[in-house]
Amino acid sequence: MLFGAIADDITGGVELASMLVAAGVRTEFHIGNGGAMTKEAPATVIALKTRVAAPDLAVASVRKATERLKSAGCRHFFFKYCATFDSTPEGNIGPCVEGMMDSLKAHNTIFCPSFCEFGRTVYQGHHFVDEVPLSESPKRHDPLTPMTDSNLVRVLQAQSRRRVGLVPYQIVTRGAAAIKSALQSLVEAGRPLAIVDAVVEDNLRAIAEATAELALATGNSSVAAHYPEAWRRRGWISSDEAPDPLPAIDGPAAVLAGSCAEATLRQLALFGERHPVLRLDMDRAFTADIVAEALDWAAPHLESGTPIAIATGAEPEIVARLQETHGRKAIASRAEEILAELAHALVGRGRVRRLVVAGGETSGSILARLGIRRLAVGPYAGAGLSRCVAAGEDPIGLVLKSGKLGKPDIFERAIEAMAQSSNAQADLSRARL
Question: What predicted TM-score, i.e. pTM, was given to this entire model?
Fold first, then answer.
């Protein structure tokens, strides 16, 4: 195994795997720390559910996954987190990465969350969402990981034992050799953790080239998407083998949205112009059987072949009121439980064969409830779109969408894409999705 990645949520892990597949790299995808790896593919992604877990539990899970990859002979390790560096002063990015460094005896590593294609960039160590500093973006209202500081050096230092440095934009633009030299200088200065600026795609390409031989790198999926180029230049992988295409999956379709992100709310609003959308009343979530009510609502629509959406997410002011009434963790956990139960009932009764899920934490809860441990992942087709198939006697088509990503019409487009093989889907442009 050449490359082993650990993702802190499901949607991010699938996105990373899909980018590797799009680059022509056969990639295994595992959910959680159970099950054996075949070691037949040059890349493996293990998706965990550690982003908002207690830091000690998150670190233990990440270290276990690291040991699994080590046992499989992995050469290059990667830790994947969100493009908006979702974390708190307690973690979990810093503690998880340092846990991996301890396991691998790695001297240093990089942090590169930029997703330039989608306007998430880092300049002089400060994170931006398009032209807006992260701390002034909607991420400041995130119900679980509110990002109120745009200075990533400061954010990472608050949650790390090792000292943090910066490789600034003016060095990154000089290319891979300059980046490597800057990283070595930071190590010599006692700063083994390095935030690396990236504003345009060429920056990510240079960072990947500079770090392809590091024991451990970390970042968003977009920097890892450039590693296959570096591997081929070194003769580590061949261009002869292509990943297997995903089959077309037809049948009833549903969207389950747990994300409260502004992008998801816009996507639901547009979807609702042409399809039925049920917004669950989370005030009743602890006293009424809203799962049964939702299933009763969904049945006639699905029987008629109409795609539906069911959502627990709401606008920031409603979320704030729910958190004040029920507690932040309690309401988030209950929302995940409800959507997971709905997914289990809808898929288990055969009513739904195509499922779109919005939200990383929600995706993890739903796949766990469905008992899905492995996925076949298709090629990347655009920000927010990660198509995959849960194989079996009756395969299920899945699109797992980060809450913050995707164009307004992504739900309808994703449902359409699942009805085609991934060979046909590969011809769809990123602009369309």
Answer: 0.85
Q: Where are the alpha helices (DSSP H) in 115-225?
A: 152-158, 169-172, 176-188, 201-211, 221-224
290-303 vs 328-348: helix crossing angle, rounded to 10? 40
**Which pLDDT score is estimated for 129?**
95
Q: What is the pLDDT of residue 57?
A: 97
Residue 205 carries which side chain, given as an amino acid letter?
R
Mean pLDDT confidence for 76-85: 96
Q: Which pLDDT belongs to residue 92?
A: 96
Angular region, 331: left φ>0, alpha ψ -120 to 50, beta rest: alpha
Write the DSSP assignment of 274-320 as a string of letters: TS-EEE--GGGTTTS-HHHHHHHHHHHHHHTT--EEEE----HHHHH
For residue 248 the two structure tokens come to: 């077309």
Report pLDDT for 281: 87
From CA 392, how far away is CA 349, in angstroms rounded? 15
* Under 8 Å between Cβ of 288 and 344: no
Q: How far is CA 251 from CA 24, 149, 176, 357, 382, in A?
A: 29, 45, 48, 16, 23
Looking at residues 337-366, what average pLDDT do you find? Answer: 90
- Residue where the block lists tokens 């056969």: 26
Q: In terms of Cα–Cα distance, which of 383, 1, 20 is closest to 230?
A: 20
What three-state secondary structure class fits 179?
A: helix
